[in-house]
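Support reply, case 0932

Customer input (verbatim):
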Amino acid sequence: MNDVLRMCSRIELEKMELRSDAAGQVLHCLRESHTNGGAILATVALGTDQVMDWFASRNRLLEWEILPRILRREQIKACLAELKIGALTHSTGEGKNCPISASDGFRMDNAFLFEGQLAARLHSGGSYSHSRGDGKAAKQLALGFCDALFQQRFSEVSLFTSYEAWTPWFHGIAWDWTAVLFDRRCRMLHILAVTDTD
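Our regenerated output:
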């Protein structure tokens, strides 16, 4: 446990600029359709670390709350400032506020399904948008996004999703979605957050 805590606080994190028309187009579409919320994307490079590598190679980044701990590092908070990570509390029912559990509702998901999850959000939109067409355009946009982020190397990516309002930016309603993709080969963490409200 001590090794994990040390790793979570010491691993190097560097914000990366993702220059991609495909990613920009996906963000534009999500922001256009989620008019009372929005969409945010950040990419962070992780430094080398044997402890991180051991857990990542086994898809065990939720153990000891590794992923949530890394998401609360100052470098990540800075590149996702709009999310206000770490500020959310909940009532205990006794008039006291406590920090939300660090798990934040994240669960391991199948990376091969990410393209479909993203396409569904692009197609159906937010609370005040309506689906148009047969979904082919949304599917192509989602595939282009996956190509831009990790060259469609689905078997080398770990996906973690949350449908919880784990920061104050989310609205605590049906359109809350966070997808965190960890590219094990390139040591890149891609964080996509989407929300809306009616």
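We compared this against your earlier run and they match. Two observations from our side: Confidence is low (pLDDT under 50) at residues 87-100. The chain has one domain: 14-46+80-195. Please reopen the case if you see a mismatch on your end.
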